[in-house]
Amino acid sequence: MKTNAIRINNYGGPEVLEYCEVELPELEENEARIKHTAIGLNFIDTYHRSGLYPMDLPAGLGSEAAGIVEAIGNDVTSVKVGDRVVYTGRPPDSYSEKRNFDADQLVVIPDKIKDEQAAAIFLKGLTAWYLLRKSYKVQSGDDVLLYAAAGGVGLIACQWAKHLGARVIGVVSNDEKAMLAKSNGCDDIILSDENIPERVKELTDSIGVGVVYDSVGRDTFFSSLDSLKPHGILVTFGNASGPVDPFAPAELAKRHSLYVTRPILADFISERENLVEASNELFDLVSSGVIKISINQRYPLKDTRQAHIDLESRKTTGSTILIP
Hints:
Shape: globular
Largest sheet: 7 strands, mixed
Number of domains: 2
Number of strands: 16
Distance between the termini: 17 Å
Radius of gyration: 20 Å
CATH superfamily of the largest domain: Medium-chain alcohol dehydrogenases, catalytic domain
Order of helices and strands: EEEHEEEEEHEHEHEHEHEHEHEHE
Number of helices: 9
CATH class of the largest domain: Alpha Beta
């Protein structure tokens, strides 16, 4: 069976993305075949494409999609043919019309959630979940600093953190994104070209925040440390400016006994029961209206190059989906 998909044969910029016909392998015993209806675009996809996160080449791309189960292997009991499902995980290959995937990593989409919503929110929403609920458990009254507050993860995390009772300080790159972040739960905004630690101290009576969620990486690492109060936690979870350089642990000591963690989603949802727990919490918040999904860009799958160009040039806000 053949299907259309995006493939890369070399690492590089968006120009290495190729839309082509590929052979779909036979189903394994534990797999389901999914016909995609909507595909999520995420910044991690650019890390795979550039080689920052290396893969065996040639390779597919994409870590998130929703669709319909077309067929299942003999050992599959978690889903059935005809189910609407969503998933996130490796190996990357969601940039395709159809694919085979481990059935135990598929989640049935609730009736109140549309396919496009599920594809737009699943990876980003589960990322917000492990940030706010696992890496640092946000409590009512906490001050939190969130980079890329108008991005896909940012808009979800702003709303979720606000629902948990936190004061959310968002970092964005321009006034338009500032308005968007504020309308999605940010209490205060700092522009990325400002002195971030200085502004944080102004907003917190010189105390600092309890946690920083930093998806930028190298360029903001020390600014993030300098924004924390004593015993605060830096959760570094992305590399938009490149990976964080090695640093001396003494840097944490001289800033009053700070903590740094570098979590990844896979470690929190490796067991199906944890995946289902996280998914249920996310979908409940979406269904109840606590988290509103902003799908601000849609591209045909064949135009994935342009989607990557726009994502990396910060032209996108909220969530972006590809349509097979």
